Structures are given as C-alpha cells and as structure tokens.
Amino acid sequence: MDSLSLLIDGFGTALTPQNLLFAAIGVVLGTAIGVLPGIGPAMAVALLLPVTYGLEPTAAFIMFAGIYYGGMFGGSTTSILLNTPGESASVVTAMEGYPMAKRGRGPQALAAAAIGNFVGGLIGTVALVLLAPAVASLAVNIGAPDYFAVMVLAFIAVTSVLGRSRVRGFASLLIGLTIGLVGLDQLTGQARLTFGSLHLADGIDVVIVAVGLFAVGESLWVAAHLRRTLDKPIPVGRPWLAGSDLRRTWRPWLRGPVIGFPFGAIPAGGAEIPTFLSYVTEKRFSRRKDEWGKGAIEGVAGPESTASASAAGTLVTMLTLGLPTTAVAAVMLAAFQQYGIQPGPLLFERESALVWALIASLFIGLVLLLVINLPMAPVWAKLLRIPRPYLYAGILFFASVGAYAVGGEVIDLLLLFAIGVLGFAMRRYGLPVLPAVIGVILGPAAELQMRRALQLSDGSLVGLVNSPMAVTVYVIVAAILAWPLLRRLVKRPSGDEPKDPAGV
C-alpha cells in the first residue's frame, strides 16, 4: 500500500498541466527522431538529452519518459515500413512487419506494434511498481564486494550477449573503461590520461560520449554507405485492426511481458534475446504457420510487447542498483548524473518524489503514445522521405549544439567528433557500441567499489569474494564465460563424423 500511495502522489505531480505538456512534447519529439531511418530509441534519447538542460529534474525526467516510449514507437515504424531497424530489439519486428507492409498491411502492422508497445509497457511498468521498492530495500544491505561483483556481471553479460564475437565485445568494453579513466582519481586526486590538459581534469562528460558514439558515429557510418538511389517508402494508411486481427494478437500481447520483463530486470543486456524468444514462441503457437516469413501479425505483436516490457524491466536494475544494461538505460543514467543524482538503493529514499513522478510519467507516456502517435502514423511515415544527406547533416548539427551546451567549451566539440570518429571505427570493425558506453558509466563506480573492498581487507584479494552474494555472482560470471566452451565440447562428438569424400 505504501508503494500505491507514493505512486498516487507521483501521478499528482506528473498530471499537472505543465508536466503533461512536457510529456506530450517528449512523445512527439521522441517519435519524430526515432522514426527516422537508422535512429533507434537510444540515439533519440542521446540526441535530445541536452534539450532538457534548462528544466528542473522532475520535468526533465517526465519529458524523458515521453522521449523513451516515443523513440521505441519510432524504431518499430522504420522496421515495418523500411526494413531498417533503429536498434537490435526491432530486428525481429522487421522479419514479419516489412512483409506485411509490402502486402499492403502496413497499417495493421503499425497498429499491432503500437498496441503491443502499450500493453507490454503497461504490464511491465506495473511490475516495476511492485518490484522496484522491494529490490531497493534488499540492495541497501549490499556491500562493496557485492556491488563490484554485480558490476562485473553486468560487464560480462553485456559484452557476451552483444556483437558478433566476445573479443569484439570485450574490446569495446576496454575502450569505454579507458575513457572512464580520464580525469582525476576519485581517491588520490592524481591526474590520469589528461595529457596535461586542465579541461580533461573533470573527465569526459557521459553525454558527450553517448552522443558521440551513437549520433555522430551512426551519422558518419550511414554517410559512408549512402546509396545514390534509395527505395521509396511504402505508403501508409490509417492504422487499424479488424476483429480477426485482434483475435490473433491479444494473446501475443499478453505473453510478451511474461518473456520480456524478467530478461530486462536481470543484468543480461537488453531485449534482443527475449524478442527472439517471443518470435519463436508465437510461431510455435500459431495455427497459420504458412504465413510466417510472409507477414504474420503475431510476429509483430509479440516481439513489440516483449521489447516494451523488457524496457520497463531494465529500469528496475537501473533505478535500484544503478546498473544500465541497455543503451537507452545508459543514456538515462547519464541524465540522472547530469543532475547530480545517483541511481541506487538509496534513490527511493533520497529522491522519492522524483522517482515516483518518473514512474507515474511512464504510464502517462504510454497513454499519450497511443493517443497521439497512432493516428499520426501517416505523418511520421512522410518523415521517411527526407533525403538522408540532409537528415544526417541535421543530426550532426543538433549533436554539436547539444555537446557545446554541456560546458560551453570548444574542446567539448573536439571531443564529440573525436569520439564520433571512434564510434565510426567501431562500427567499421564490428565492435558493439553499448559495452563502451557501459564501461564509461560503470567503470569509475566499479573501480571505487573494488578499492573500497580491498581497503576493508587490507589489500587481500579475498576481500572481493568474502560474502555469499559475491561468490554466487562470480559463479554466474564463470558459467557465462564457460558456456560457449562447454557447448562446443557437447557438440563435438556429432561434429567429428567423417565427411563424405564426394561432398563439397
């Protein structure tokens, strides 16, 4: 009941006319940015992060809730209409959504995705309300060794799940950890990797890193691969669902949160795995298996609901433990830090009004998303016709303005484009971006917790594993690292069969 009363107070804050306006602006801006080709929710939030600088924290995070869900809706729109997923979680949506659009059922695909986002987000946010305070109360008793172990788990899980190889994932993480070292040592005050520059003494702002890697790096990558002739967008009518479509989609909408929320709540790296599991599950339960691959509406409804619920689950880990396991959560953690607020076990005590207003605004953002964006889908589709050279030139301009607004220093612009070139190189060589952002944000905190644990044990490494929770987490880490090797050993007997000499 205490959580319910706090949530009601949060609605009282979020439903003021001014905050409702900020939520509506966030939904529209998030959708407008997220619907553009190659731009997902993470890039939309990173690009719009500097827009909230002038706002007080509560209004800023209410606006972020709208940007968050608006960006997710926009990502599914490009997946369905252009076969261009804005993020990895939208890849599964494109598998059935784009064939639906080519068959003239784009409106139905967009409606199934929008309602799936609403249902999954609604159920996931309810679970967030029920679980987050309990997780936070348990996390208060976690010590420095436990925190360091959980952060190591986040590092390992994210780098193992994402990218084409673990080596690339760990290389990306190392890049992020190195950037996170720039500045003065938190305990000794010793300058590290500043190269004698006073501008780098405070470190590199996380906002600059996020905008550089996501917005600038993606823009340079797309600019380098622009084709002279682009496919024309598929025309879109007004989204609607017939009775037969509703009968096929309501079960996937409800099954999605059951799969998505648990995966989001554990530090395991985003919605890629649960959306694929949802796709496989819906295909297994479907009675029309002949439609799969040609535009089965269940293949849109289930993964979209799953992705939205997974996003809500991610906020549990981010708010209660301060661990971002997706790109969007990493950028939102950067938003907290720009206001001097550190998510973690004490957040629900120290910033109770802000947290519950944010959670209430998630509900409001979902409703606004459905009310505002579903009828406006044809308008957003027209944005897809913007020539991409103009589009990415505009993105670079707004990214530059946002980076300059961080500190008003020219060096911030130089750092932005240097990190943007780094982001381009990472894409060129197949390095995932998310581990680098996670490394920048969590690296300093993990170092601090490790040094505290070692101080408590007089420098003995045993101090890192002197609690049952830490030992359990390290066992999970070892299992994650050893799983590919074990799987290879299990499969080896079947792989050692002699090949047919006549075979190719």
TrEMBL record:
Domain annotation DUF112: ranges: 20-437
Pfam families reported in the protein's UniProt record: TctA
Taxonomy, superkingdom: Bacteria
InterPro entries: DUF112_TM
Record-given protein name: Tripartite tricarboxylate transporter TctA
Organism: Prauserella muralis
